[in-house]
Amino acid sequence: MSEKILVVDDDPDILEAITLIFECQGYQVITARDGIEGLACLKAEKPDLMILDLLMPKIDGFAVLKELQDPRWSEFRDTPILILTSVREEASRRRYELETGLELGADSYVEKPVSPAIILKKVEKLIKKQKV
Amino acid sequence: MRYSETLFEVATQISSSLSTDEVLKAIVESTAHAVNVKGCSLLLLSPDKRQLVHSASYGLSDWFLKKGPISADRSPSQTLEGKPDQVLDATKDKNIQYRWHVKKEGIASILAVPVILDNEVIGMMKLYTSKPRQFSEAEISFVKGVTSLGALALQKARLHETVSQDLQQCNIDLSRLENERQNLFYFLSMAAHDLKAPLSAVQTYFGVLLGGFAGEIGEKPSNILERCNVRIIELLELISDLLDISKIEAGQVVTEMKEVHLESVAANSVETAWALAEKKGIELGVDIPKRLPRLYCASSRLQHVLTHLMSNAITYTHPGGSVKLKIVNGRRAIQIEVSDTGIGIPREELRQVFQEFFRASNNVEAKGSGLGLAIVKKVVEAHGGRIWAESPCLETGKGCRFSFTIPKKEKGGKRTSPFKS
Q1: Using beta carbons and an 8 Å cutoff, which residues of A are at the interface with B?
Q2: By C-alpha distance, which of A115, A63, A67 is closest to A87?
Q3: Distance of CA B311 to CAs B59, B278, B314, B316, B322, Å?
Q4: Angle between the A61-68 and A90-100 helix axes, to the nearest 10 degrees?
Q5: Contact between A90 and B193 using a beta-carbon 8 Å cutoff
């Protein structure tokens, strides 16, 4: 069975590019354009991993992460999340650490522009870790 | 004897931290005692120079002081021309404006000495006696002396006022500038972010196409795409660099600082450099001591510095050459060195390498924004460190070596000052 990946980003071109990368490698890809849609997809599709952009209209990535900390979402507590960000946008990074209380480790984020080789490697790693 | 003591006392008061009013009050009181007169008053000319106003007085009643405006032209005329003048019977002299008040106050004679500041009469010191008397030369000289000191006190006050006004203006200008700078910084970061988003999407697509994720493409289109990709990367880097410069200039590095492990920072940079070195056929040497102390720094900035120095070294080294990262745990600071066996930098240009948009003359195929090393230097200096370049590297005699220091955190939370020897 192929792994299912949910990609949440407001940029349709980023969604399309990431979809192409993962579909090519045999993954099943679902996309969402904002946080609300993303949370709905997460509930309905139960993906193996979520790729989440931080800066989005409506409910942004930070709000999604906060929402997932609520016990109602405990079912998805172990679903790995790969953050889409720019490491040089230090403000986003600090806000992430401030709001989630987690350190944004090198394995848990991917910089934009997205390099196919890097995002594939990080997703593989996260899914493998989750299965162990 | 009494005069010199008084002059000394007044001079001491002027140089003290007393307010001008207190100093002037002490001057009139000391003068009255020293010359043994009923009262003494310091009168200053109004800005239009038509009236005299009591600034400080001793031995005179409130009623007398508030008798009304004193016309400048009804005062002893010589005094306003800069010479001392005395009136033996002030109750009868026509030059005295308030003769009836003078009589009621019990004043007989008056001595008036001009207060001169910057060659200009700004007022007068008046001495009032209760019995008619002629002032001696010695007394007049003394009063002239003490009046000069009074003028000095007034000058000090005026300077102080000018300085504090200038200072206030400077503070207003400064906060306005700071405001404008913040606005500019905000505008720049918004503009940079909005410019980066579409470019990021385009560059991501290039990666997809070139990686064959959207199907096979021929060699020629692939080459063209590769070149487009390179140009987009350049543009993205330029925008990021401009954004970085504005953020660093706004002092953001300091706000990002926290305690971090240098090993993890270095490991991330080394990982990036490994990939680049391997691709180009360059040997990458890493010499990092086992136990490094935790550093107080902005980790992502520091990582950027390290990555930039190493990728620069790889860029300017021919295949088959080598690049080395070495970290030395010094007593006061950590020293980080990146050396290569590359093309080096002409000796006379070494000092300029950290300047914005500088390109070494032997750097024929210049890449990047030209801001990289300027940013690196700003980041190192924001950490209280120092950065320098040498070419050829003193150790190998080849290529060049970039070294920088990051001061260690002292016990008790203070950081070692980079200015200490």
Answers
A1: 11, 13-14, 16-18, 20-21, 24, 86-90, 93-94, 106, 112-117
A2: A115
A3: 85, 12, 5, 9, 12
A4: 20
A5: no
Nearest alpha carbon to residue B306 among B362, B266, B343: B266
Chain B residues with CB under 8 Å of A96 CB are none
Tokens describing residue A53: 């952009």
ipTM (interface predicted TM): 0.86
The answer, yes or no, to whether the previous bond of B392 is cis (omega within 30 of 0) is yes
Look at B208 and A21 and tell me if their CB atoms are within 8 Å. yes
How far B172 CA sits from the closest chain A CA (Å)? 30
Through-space distance between the first and last CA atoms of chain B, rounded to whole angstroms: 54
C-beta separation of B7 from B146 below 8 A: yes
C-beta atoms of B204 and A113 within 8 A? yes
Q: Which stretches of B77-136 are DSSP H helices?
A: 77-80, 99-104
Find the residue in B nearest to A91 (Cα).
B256
Inter-chain contact B213–A112, Cβ cutoff 8 Å?
A: no
Q: What angle do CA B413, B414, B418 make, to 5 degrees?
A: 145
Beta pairing partners, B86: B111
Helix, strand, or coil (residue B193): helix
Pairing, β B322-329 against β B283-287? parallel
- Give the nearest chain B residue to A87 (CA atoms): B300
- Distance to chain A for B223, nearest Cα, Å: 18
User: For the residues of B199-262, what is the DSSP string, one character each?
Assistant: HHHHHHHHHHHHTTBTB---HHHHHHHHHHHHHHHHHHHHHHHHHHHHHHHTTHHHHT-EEEEH
B415 band by pLDDT with thresholds 50, 70 and 90: very low
Complete edge-to-edge strand list for the sheet that includes strand A49-53: A28-32, A4-8, A49-53, A81-85, A109-111
Phi, psi of A76, deg, nearest 5: -105, 10
Q: Tens digit of pLDDT for each residue in B75-112? A: 666 788 888 988 989 888 887 888 889 999 999 999 99
Q: Using an 8 Å Cβ cutoff, are B257 and B294 in contact?
A: no
Q: Does B280 touch chain A (CB under 8 A)?
A: no
pTM: predicted TM-score of the whole model, two decimal places: 0.54
How far B191 CA sits from the closest chain A CA (Å)? Answer: 13
